[in-house]
Amino acid sequence: MNHPLPEVCDGILLKQEAIESRVRELGESLVRDHTGHDLRLITVLRGGLFFLSDLCRATDMPVSLDFMAVSAYGPAASGSVRITKDLDDSIEGASVVVVEDIIDTGLTLHYVLEVLRRRGPASLEVCTLMDKGVRRIVDLPITYQGFRVPDRFLVGYGLDLDGMYRNLPYVATLRDEVMS
Ligand code: 5GP
Fold first, then answer.
1. What's the CATH architecture for 17-149?
2. pTM tops 0.85, yes or no
3. Does residue 156 contact residue 165 with C-beta atoms inside 8 Å?
């Protein structure tokens, strides 16, 4: 599949092959750690969908999937988040892994984890493909991490710019001029 680099980008940060191979390793880690458990992979729509789809197929054991959607409100960086679509199934007693495309400040995920923790899962972990570490405001229990990424605006493999570029099979950096 040939997706040329969009004009708004200045380079590829994570090639398709690198993502595929890291996702395979993460799937193997999930199997190693969760065999025999009621494993639920939960993602927050929409960006995490692409990673979840590949990750669950790299996880060679019975697993079920569920989805949430949230929207931020109030002042930026206030961490105020509202659930706009809740999970379909109870997670009580389940081994829950929240699957994220990218974690930046961590505020969104922090809120989601608080909500899920109150529902009594046997365990609650995080698997993120990308981690922007340097901008983290809250401490998060990240058990599985694909890549540390720099503090640039990224698109592709689920990450969008105004709803576009999610379907790129790689992750690219946006030109600084486009950001400003
Ligand atoms: P946080 O609450 O951790 O600051 O924000 C996480 C969310 O911000 C991600 O799920 C993603 O939707 C968005 N995000 C963070 N960094 C980027 C980025 O570089 N590119 C895009 N397209 N979205 C990002």
1. 3-Layer(aba) Sandwich (3.40)
2. yes
3. yes
